[in-house]
Automatic annotation (TrEMBL):
It is found in: Cell membrane. The lineage of its organism: Bacteria, Bacillati, Actinomycetota, Actinomycetes, Kitasatosporales. GO terms for cellular component: plasma membrane. This is RDD domain-containing protein. The keyword Calcium does not apply.
Length: 189
């Protein structure tokens, strides 16, 4: 007499649904059987961590060079704007120049830092700005926030002094306040 083969028992399907209009069965939350939830993994290829933090002298030199380059670019582009609006003059002319001043500042700094991680002055001084989490460039909007905070801090007396000095005692990334706003750090290029 032969014994019929035994097949493994599979779990039953979902419990039967209740009367019409009753809530349907939902899978419970959690990981369930199988592999555990993944933990922290180091960044993959193309996400090399920076070799070190940029020293404070290089950061200061980069900012000074950047402001000089930006002033030159601003005045070269503002002269035609001033000639164009000089015929009318008055408050609208001042408004246009102030808007162009802020726009050119944000575009020079935010676009360069957001896209490439550095501006011309930062490249000369060997400094790169990256996100703390990924060591990648910030992206445009995060860089806009970083530079907008820098501008705001520059016009407020106490904050304007604290912002650049903050990196002298901040640990572990030596971040200025505008770096903290954008979750960024300055590293060696």
């Amino acid at each position: 007499m032969s014994i019929p083969p035994q097949y493994p028992q599979y779990p039953a399907g979902p419990p039967p649904s209740g009367p019409p209009g009753a809530p349907q069965f939902q899978q419970p939350y959690g990981q369930g059987y199988g592999y555990p939830a993944p933990g922290w993994m180091p960044p993959g290829p193309g996400h090399a961590m920076p070799s070190g933090l940029a020293n404070l002298g290089a950061r200061l030199g980069a900012r000074v060079l950047d402001v000089i380059f930006w002033y030159i670019a601003y005045f070269v582009t503002a002269i035609p704007v001033m000639m164009w609006i000089d015929a009318d003059g008055g408050a609208p002319a001042v408004t246009v120049l102030v808007v162009w001043l802020v726009t050119s500042f944000v575009l020079y700094f935010a676009f360069s830092v957001g896209k490439f991680g550095s501006t011309l002055g930062k490249r000369i001084c060997g400094v790169r700005i990256v996100r703390c989490e990924t060591a990648q460039p910030l992206g445009f909007w995060r860089a806009v926030g970083r530079e907008a905070f820098w501008l705001l801090a520059a016009v407020l007396p106490v904050l304007g002094l604290l912002n650049p000095l903050w990196c002298c005692w901040d640990k572990p990334y030596q971040q200025c306040l505008h770096d903290k706003v954008a979750d960024s750090m300055a590293v060696v290029r």
